[in-house]
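Good day; I would like, with your permission, to put a structural problem before you. What I wish to show you is a protein chain and, alongside it, a tokenised description of its three-dimensional fold. Thank you for your consideration; the sequence and its tokens are set out here:
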Amino acid sequence: MIKDSPSNISREKNILFLSNGYGEDAIATSIVENLLKKNPFLKIKAFPLVGEGKSYSSFPVEVFSSHIKLPSEGFIRNRPLYLLKDIKAGLFKKILTYTFNLYKEAKRGRLTVVVGDTFLLFLAGLSVRSPIVFLSTSKSNYKRGHLAIERCLMKKFCQLVLARDKLTAESLKKVGIKAMYMGNIMMDCLKITGEDFGLSPKDKVVGILPGSRREAYTNIKVILQSIEIINKKSPLPVKYLLAISPSLNITNLGEAIVSQGWKITDSSDKDKKRGIIAYLSHFNNLKIPVISGKFGDVLNKSQVIIGLSGTGNEQAAGMGKPVVAFPGKGPQITKRFLELQSKMLGGAVIVKPKDPFQIAEELIDLLNNPLRREKIGKIGKNRMGPPGGSEKVASFLIEEFNLY
């Protein structure tokens, strides 16, 4: 535990949270929620690198965002050519603004929690003087472990690394890094209210996760083509639930699908209370509820998922739902990204070509093969681990860093 030396006492009990993505923001806010339950007087400041950090808005958190939207949306690694587009869009200005704000606030920080990747850790290491706890969200020894340069950054800057699974934590310990595994906090971000959206327990349901980035407006077209094929070929009726991210715009979604015979139709006041904000309607009587704010319930009611999401795919696998995915058009959901995600989750994410017929066939097979679904589901649950990590992490931080 860090004792209260005069230098520590002079600092207010400010905690800085750094995150670099929609999923990372959600993970960070899950920890924030538990910290504030234990000590409501903590002063928490958030520094989202990608996006505006909307997840933090539910809590008394001061958010510092540069508000510059980049074409890569933080996924330069997946498509390196996006680096040039990012530079034109103000990448360096964003990083300088971010680092300046962080440096300015860092002297009042008691603790810095970095949720994301080692680039964000590098920025934190250059800017803050408080102890750093690093939640490494994307790297796992199940797919590919941390690079030597990443391990060096952890040794140099981190007081503690919280790994996403036991295997990775043990690997980091072997090279002299103080690492722990306290559970997969992604699973804590799922809130299940019990909403059934009017579906029967006997219904065959496909959950749709188009993603949270701009590429979702393009990728939804392939998803809907696959659904039209399922509707024609499935031996039994299939229902659908589409989970829309707060970062997507329903009007833009409607504009993206109109050329394929789909349109956005309004939902009733009763539907809106259930989380159904609209419907995707097709001329052949297909009607898909668009759900906002009840992502956990969408996963809970679905037997299988068609997913072009990062964190969302992993959460679905953690709930025991097989995920069918395909490479999208954009910087995030590339073939390489999905192959690594599938490897990390033991095959719980099934990667298909961007062919609506092959995607539809895979989904139909899963819907009609409960034993296969169960086998894949067990693997996904095992790889992701149970919920409860954010409460454990919050308790540890309170004790270890004397945040009473």
Q: What stands out?
A: The chain has 16 helices and 15 strands. The CA atoms of residues 204 and 238 lie 5 Å apart.
